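user: Kindly work through both lines:
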Amino acid sequence: MKINISDYLVCPHDHGELDCINGIAYRCKECGSKFPFEISGVPNFLSDDINSARLQHIPLNAAGDGSSNWSPGLRYWNPGFLAKLLKFGYGVERPKELVPEGALMLDVGCGGNAQGDINTDVYIPSPLPKNFLLASAEKLPFKSGSIDIVRSAYVIEHNPHPALMLKEHSRVSKHKVIAYTDNSDWLGAILLRALNTGYIFHDEHYYKWSKEYMENLIARLKLRGVVKLFNGSPSLFVKIFSLFGIIPRIGPLFYRDLKVELTK
């Protein structure tokens, strides 16, 4: 879908209109905040504290725009065959959306597997996704109700403000919000913990989510939606394990992932 990204942008602080200053920055007409373009031409709507953390932890490439060698802060040791069967995040085919023809999708925290017509993250992936800009998940620089589908895959567990993130996704979306995350009730997570590996040891994970806790959050925010259990692992062992998910009451223990769907 060919779009003019400027048509959808507002100031992430007060949602004021933006001016483009000589192709080097956006400026809010209301509060005067400036949002510069990176050397690569990517608009930067991140707050100063996130920018500071980004530049401290991401090795700069030759262009100096911080896009080259970023990798998640996963710490683990490799204890053997069982961990290889269960290990989270390796060889995982991230969920793909079936988007209705003509619908506009925003992929928040897109990383190197961007799926949106517009894509955002807090670092610059390589290769650069189309219509990409730097923005945090809880402060998006888009007009209210301007995007048909707002999607994030395995982002909310990285965000220190999950309630603000879901509210902001709902504000921007016209029809639907889709968010994926890990299911903290999964028995495999307990086995991985015993083996000193897995997503519980991810340096950038702030929260764990179960189906019930995510439902509680959605209800407390007065949002309308459902939380579904599923298994996104490519591991044959995990796929067989998830067949026990039909067991009443304890079924969530056998699913690795959660899918949140919010509707307007």
